[in-house]
Amino acid sequence: MLLGLMLMMCAPPCELTALLLTATPSRPVEGGSVTLACNVLVPSRRLDGPLQFCFFRDSRVLWPGWSSSPELQLPKVWREDSGSYWCEEKTMAARVTRSPRVQIQVQRVPVCNVSLETQPPGGQVQKGERLALICMVARGTGDITFLWYKGALGLNLETKTQRSLAAKFEIPAVRDSDTDKYYCAADNGYGPSLSELVSITVRIPVSRPVLTIRGPGAPAEVGDVVELRCEAQRGSPPILYRFYHKNVTLGRSSAHAGGGASFNLSLTAEHSGNYSCEADNGLGAQRSKAVPLNVTVPTEDRKELLASGILEGMLGVLGPVILALFCCGLRKRLGRRPSGNPRGSPPSPVPPASSYVNSPAPLQGQSVYENANVVRGDEVYSLVYHTQQEWPPAVPPPRTRVEDQVSQNPHGIFPPARLSFFCRRAPQTLKLMAT
């Protein structure tokens, strides 16, 4: 008791009612600023000289301690800054005055509008790549706890607490099993808020496809219909398959649900050779090994092809020779035949009127058509010959020795002055002239 009385006598006098502490705003929000002001209630105190001020919170001195300013600016306050505040005033005579305590409660803003984003965007990532799940809140103050979950059962993947509006969780290299639905939660003391579900698809590049050729029997023959089957054992759908014969594209087919694809081919003799296929799902194309296919031509077909080839070759070589010989023989025969039509020869067409070479109005000569019957494939050869004869005029000129000899001809006709041969071959006409 005596000790307490002595301390009171030695301590500097302190008037608790001479000062008043105010806070602006009185209900601050986390992350905001607060201004503390130490107001002197007794103006006469100012006559004692310069004053020093100091601010306290829960018995701790706030920086910078004693100063000549009656105000203190707190740039950012948090929930843990809540507590009991007061200020003190000190005169030159070391007389200290303390203000009453003021309770300041820093308000926290609950989190809201939680969302989950992915990198790369779109929720699709290739196997082995990095996947980042970013959990964000539109509002919220203080320390926020972020949580990431996988699947419908909510398997917790990661928990982080930090003073920010976003946090990131990363999977360095995704695997096939990482394909699932994900969501996140955020909590700053008012209960967790959940994001929407986000689907993550791990896309797998296609493996090297395998090409199989299926037919009705072995060996493959002309006319058979074979199935080209291309299938990649791994790869995310959709998969586009292309089929090749000697590196020439035959066709394409898509497998929207995965698996393989088929292409049907009706075989001809030209379809022998190597076949391959290609699989592509946008993450890189893979090509199969080459598969050989030998198309067999049936024996009957080979005989027909051989016979027709030999026949065409012979006709191609012998046809012109036979035609030339026939034309020459026919020319000699026409030169020796009498005026009447020999047996076996086609009758000559009768002209409407006789014509003479040296008459005032000559007419066309006679034409004879004869079929040569030379056939090669769809080609038919015909022979057309045309003759013009000279007859004496109405008033005969003076006779000569040569004319006397000619007049001894009992038939009274002259040899042809000009003989023309036309060898016709559809669709062309060959003309042979003889005089």
Descriptors for this entry?
Immunoglobulin-like, mainly beta, 42% strand, 435 residues
Roughly how many Å is the radius of gyration? 59 Å
CATH topology of the largest domain: Immunoglobulin-like
Portion in helices: 10-25%
Number of helices: 3
Describe this structure in words.
The protein is mostly beta strands. It has 4 domains: 9-104, Immunoglobulins (Immunoglobulin-like, Sandwich), CATH 2.60.40; 112-203, Sandwich (Immunoglobulin-like), CATH 2.60.40.10; 210-296, Immunoglobulin-like (Sandwich), CATH 2.60.40; 312-337 and 364-393 and 413-435, no CATH class. Helices cover 12% and strands 42% of the residues. The protein has helices at residues 2-10, 299-336, 401-407; strands at residues 19-24, 34-40, 52-57, 60-61, 71-74, 83-90, 96-98, 102-104, 112-119, 124-126, 131-139, 144-150, 155-162, 166-171, 180-187, 193-194, 198-203, 210-214, 220-221, 225-231, 239-245, 248-255, 261-266, 273-280, 286-287, 291-293, 295-296, 366-376, 379-388, 418-425, 428-434. Strand 28 (366-376) and strand 29 (379-388) form a beta hairpin. The longest helix has 38 residues, at 299-336. The model is unreliable at 1-16, 339-364, 372-377 and 400-435 (pLDDT under 50).
